[in-house]
Amino acid sequence: MCPPARSTVPTVELGRLNLDGPFDLRRTLAPLGGYFRPDGWWKPMRTPAGPATVHLRRAGTVVESRAFGPGAPSALALVVGLVGSDDDPATFVTDHPVVSQLARQYPGWRFGRTGLVFEALLASIVAQKVTGKEAARSGRALGRRFSEPAPGPEDLRLPPDPERLAEAPYYEYHPLGIEQRRADTIRGTAREAVRIDQLADVSANDARAYLERFPGIGVWTSAETVAISHGDADAVSVGDFHLKHIVAWHLTGQPRGSDEDMLALLEQFRPHRGRVIRLLETLGHEPAFGPRQPLRSIVGI
Question: Can you give the pTM of this predicted structure?
């Protein structure tokens, strides 16, 4: 069967968005997914009004935006959040020598927010208990299996369709590198994707509380989700394999730490704990003791 033709819906143009203060647009947008090309940043998305692709490029002190597809007006309404216009890193003040130096080094690194809760949740579920390379591989496979071409001139695909994710039996996930536990979590949350996306209108804490009601969604997954969907600069991913060690190493010089150690060390930085984590991650990982965990494949198991 031939794949669906790419949409030819006309472009919707948006006026120029002024950037106030320091802005590191690339670092701000990078955690939100999408694709950097020579002409700017492209992000396909599913909006309540339909599929869309948004294109952002910087021109001096402004961001120029355009969007394609039936969801273009909804996508353009997200631009202010995507570029982190409502996040001000200057409100973060600390006298910690390491962190204060990093804050001065990256004054324009903002927390952008997509407002797309299910999309962020799906990526977080896929990343549970696996390496970053494994998660990326499975994420690409999900897109090939459960999505269609995105509208616009670029050769991109939309995020996976929640209805197709919900309807697919487990055995369709297995060849994509996703075992039954994560597959069941994806299928269960995909059935409630419309309600989950409405969580963009509530606080990050309330969104986390709602998400953690679902089987398979814990504090790590909910934190990873709202950091992207809500731009929560205080979210801490408790339970991460490396994060507790990164924080301990760069704040105390100890190569290993616990989640309890991490939370205690970060407490002084509220409500910017997530911001501090991103800054510390620029310094690299903790010292490696022993071989890294090998990539796994569950295909054929």
Answer: 0.91
